[in-house]
Amino acid sequence: MEKFKEVVKSFVSGNDIQVAPLGAGHINDSYKVSVDGKEFVLQRINHSIFKNVPELQNNILRVTSHIRSKLKERGITDIERRVLNLIPAKNDKYYYQDADGNYWRLMDYIKDSKTFDSISPELAEKAGEAFGDFQSMLADMPGKPLFETIPDFHNIESRLEIFRKAVRNDLAWRRSQVQYIIDAMENRADAMCLSERLHREGKLPKRINHCDTKVNNILFDSEGKEVLCVVDLDTVMPGYVLSDFGDFMRTGANNGKEDDTVLSNVSVNFAVFEAYTKGYLRKAKAFLTDVEIDNLAFGAKLMTFMQVIRFLTDYLDGDLYYKIKYPRHNLDRTLAQWKLLGSMETNYTRLHNIVKWTSAKIY
Q1: CA distance 211 to 254
Q2: Calpha distance 57→149 (Å, rounded)
Q3: What is the pLDDT of residues 108-155, one digit of tens each?
Q4: How many CA atoms, within 13 angstroms, populate the side-chain half-sphere of residue 301?
Q5: What number of H helices and E strands is found in the chain?
Q6: Which residue, among 285, 283, 299, 282, has the nearest Cα to 198 in the 3D structure?
Q7: pLDDT of 300-312, one tens digit each?
Q8: What pLDDT does 2 receive?
Q9: CATH class of 121-361
Q10: Are 155 and 161 in contact (CB under 8 A)?
């Protein structure tokens, strides 16, 4: 507790300081803090993943400041509930580094809010509106491009290079048992690099992406009826909108689990796909190009393919990156994502038409 008090006091002064764990984040450690009755969120930033904390915090400050200005233009009165608010440390930086080298940040706590881990069509439509509006508000943010907090995070060409290195090295002696999956991924690899080719041709712009578009990264009001704001902004950086769209579909529009061992459970949830598309395009269509809209459904295939090779890469490397619960966990994840990819491929015309018809209805 004394350690926490030292960190908290590097941001704000107070006598009665209370600290309790908050949530179960996979990357950062989060705590709910009360200082003389005022509530905050304290986070220890995982600097083994986010290696440049000053640039990371500068990204978040730029993004939240711009969103705040947009909300003011709209006449929003409860802005403190609609966007995260970073608290500067007493050294005037938006982070504090303790004697052990750990990095910390403090934000206002948004009261009477909740998140969801499961999805429904109704919730998916609201999530689509939330992420579509998030991107829309940031589409005209001035200044230089944001810093890439995780370089090449959603760059499929880079992911394929890492995957092929893992195949060559075969560190865990597992290649022979998964060669059929490796071959299947290589057969798709060239087609899956479409977005990078379109970008090099000047046809697909990079915009400000969230890069972790899961429903639990949206705060709702306490009744779960109204979106308050998008949270978890560590990975906000340049990217293709189709990647953000596709990443939500990979996790949200799946009838099974990401690591489902009953593969018959895994398939595209068309109701969620359509609902999210409707909400997303309602908010985002105005700033999107025709090429971006035409490739949104491709984004769902791309991000699922990318996750197949990421899980398979880690399995070949001996499970060095993802936490596993049992020896073949990464293989089961690989197989489940491959099954979802197959469902998306089989139904791709239907998915593409959902995007096309939805877009045509929105003016």
Answers
A1: 18
A2: 10
A3: 999 999 999 999 999 999 999 999 999 999 999 999 999 999 999 999
A4: 23
A5: 12, 11
A6: 299
A7: 999 999 999 999 9
A8: 80
A9: alpha beta
A10: no
What's the one-letter identity of residue 81?
A: R
Mean pLDDT, the chain, whole residue set: 96
Measured at the CA of 155, the angle between CA 154 and CA 160, to 5 degrees, comes to 115
Tokens (6 digits) for 315 = 């399995």
Tokens of 258: 């990401």
> In the chain, where are the structural domains located?
2-110, 121-361
Name residue, tokens 């089989």.
346
- Cβ atoms of 124 and 215 within 8 Å: the answer is yes
48: left (phi over 0), alpha (psi -120 to 50) or beta: alpha
Whether CATH 3.40.50.1820 fits 2-110: no
What tens digit of pLDDT does each residue of 279-338 get? 999 999 999 999 999 999 999 999 999 999 999 999 999 999 988 999 999 999 999 999
Residues comprising the chain, all counted:
363
Three-state DSSP state, 21: strand
Tokens 């200082």 locate to: 35
Q: Are strands 218-221 and 113-114 parallel, antiparallel or unpaired?
A: antiparallel
CA angle 66, 76, 62 (to 5 degrees): 10
Burial of 139 (0-12, 13-18, 19+ CB in 10 A): middle
Selection from 48, 19, 50 nearest residue 232 by Cα:
50
Q: Residue 24: what pLDDT?
A: 61
39, β-bridge pairs = 34
Cβ(31)–Cβ(22) below 8 Å: yes
Q: What is the pLDDT of residues 230-269, one digit of tens each?
A: 999 999 999 999 999 999 999 999 999 999 999 999 999 9
Cα separation, 289 vs 206, whole angstroms: 12
Residue 137's pLDDT is what? 97
Q: How far apart are CA 338 and CA 263, in angstroms?
A: 10
* Angle (deg, nearest 10), helices 121-138 and 53-73: 100
Indicate the pLDDT class of residue 29, thresholds 50, 70 and 90.
Answer: confident
Find, among 213, 250, 211, the residue nearest to 128 by Cα.
Answer: 213
pTM exceeding 0.70: yes
